[in-house]
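Researcher: I'm preparing a figure for a lab meeting and need a structural model of a single chain. I don't have an experimental structure, so a prediction will have to do for now. The sequence is pasted below. Please return the structure as tokens so I can convert it later.
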Amino acid sequence: MKSVSALRKCSLTHSSWPTSPLVFDFLAPSHLRQNYRGYKSTTQTPFWGLSSDTSSEPISNTPKPKYVLSPKQREYLDSALRVNQAGELAATLIYQAQTPQVVRSHPHLRPLMKHMYDQEAVHFSVFNQMIAKHQVRPTAMYPVWQVAATVLGWSTAAMGREAAMACTEAVETEIGSHYNDQVREILSWQAEAESRGEELDDELKDMLATFRKIRDEELEHLDHAVENDAKEARPYDPLVNVIRLGCRAAIRISEKV
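Model: Understood. Here is the structure written out token by token.
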């Protein structure tokens, strides 16, 4: 298992974010109700590195050719966006279910719970927009994850503040690790592009910056959980291990289904 420090090794690059809080728009369920005849995966319709033809421009002003992604790489991005959207849905629902019980017993945690929820809501909106823009099929497990996340949030909050924070620690450890894997993968493409005298498309660069920023905010939530006695939950090890195992299973399923 990756340590928290290992998740922080990649350098930070921040992108701009919406300035006002966002709430659920539940874009994905509307996608699921639509007929998939209109679905176009980025595997067939590349959105990054469409062309490297610069032959019509003067040699002195010719920019670096764009790095053209392979079908396998475009499939990877489809899968990444599908998993990320599902993960952010789950995170928002977990916090939504936990907050009433946690702040009832610990009113001083209201600002922290709202802060973490608001960030997750922005993340969810960002991936809703990416899913729609690139016409990526959301996971078919969406309704299942909705129920599972709500039950997880409610049940851990019912166990007490420490258990709720342990849930956050477990979830954010897995999510942060997964985002870090995505960042490393795209950075490997960037290194390959540079070795060939090419560069990533601007949209893919922006996506890389977005993944990094969201990863860092997820790891901040992990820090908040530990600072608020996540490790005092009882039983700590079984609880955290089961939640992490469930997160890994949900990620693997959402990548394919």
